[in-house]
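[Meeting: bench + compute handoff]

Bench side (C.D.) handed over the final construct sequence. Compute side (W.E.) agreed to return the predicted structure before the next meeting so the bench team could plan truncations. Sequence as handed over:
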Amino acid sequence: MQMKWRVLTAVAVLASIYSLSTCSSRGRTREADIGTVQPRLVRTTVLASGEVAFVNSVDLRPEITGVVSQIAVRTGQNVHKGDVLLTFDPSTLQAELRQQSANIAAQKASLARSRAAREHAQRQRERSAAVYARKVISRDSFDQTETAAELAEFDALVAEQNLALAEAQRDRTEEILNKSVIRAPFDGQVIDIAIKQGETAVAGITNVAGSQLLTLADTSGVVAEIAVDEMDVGKVRLDQVVEIDVVAFPGRRLRGRVVELDLSAQSRQNSESLKYRAVARIDDTQELPLRKRMTVRAEVVVSSGESDVAVPLRAILTDAAASGEEKHSYVYAVVGGRARKKPVQLGRSDDEYQVIRSGLAPDDKLVLGPYQVLRQLQDGDGVIARPAATQEGG
């Protein structure tokens, strides 16, 4: 009888230990961030990066090769159309022009002589023809005067061509001399000067010293030139809203619209994915002193979305799945003070929130975090809100 009592006591103790262990593992209570599910407007955006540029900007390059004798402007200076920006040393061209002018004078004198000789030969031919008609001179004498007249005519034509060539050379030199003065093609601001006084500008070559003079831009029209990834370019359309952050001015978000979208991809760098250039016109610069090539980060608003049930991204967990199997997402809802695992179907998302297509309803309570708690949380665990840490899920 005593042995039986000891056995029953041992069994009761073991059952009590097991019951306490089970309750401890399944009924533990954790502090967590708890929020209420609410409808939220979730946008779909495309992220891109790029740089600041100006709508009307031109890199002025030399059309002639020459030494820069004067730079009439400074960086940042506002200029008007036609203002002198830069000049080349004109002395060599001016010397050529004087030489060509003298050559033209000599060619005009030569032409005058040729024309006089032509007129004399024509009169001689006319007299010879009359005399020859009366059989006073021989045929050979008449032929000589005829040949002399033809040669005089040819000499006059050559002199005329020589004069025209000399005048063309002078006109060409004058045109080149005019190109030795660089003027502003439009009203704008000098944003870069790439050459110095005394350096030689080189025409017809790019990407070498002297191949660029200066950059002029109309700074009243500012754009962001961004590179859109191949995966996202199909979502981008003209006139979509773009929210732009300039790295140099944190916290000052600008807005613009897509005004250009290239059909051809930019050159691929090594193993990078293809990028397509898009241009967003900035509607209001907020009087920020934007400069060319400042780095920007942009969000192209593909869809402004509709008000849907959405929860913070951090509240969504995913079941581990075997290879080839579909993963399933779930959240922990709070029901009667306990965490209840709820499978959910996901919709679109932005950087902070995920739309829940099914599985939750507005006003449901939800465990939002922290991550360490969510990772260890089990269905049925008790949850209470952390002091001063309860967060709204919508």
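W.E. noted at the follow-up: The chain is about 30% helix and 35% strand. C.D. will use this when planning the next construct.
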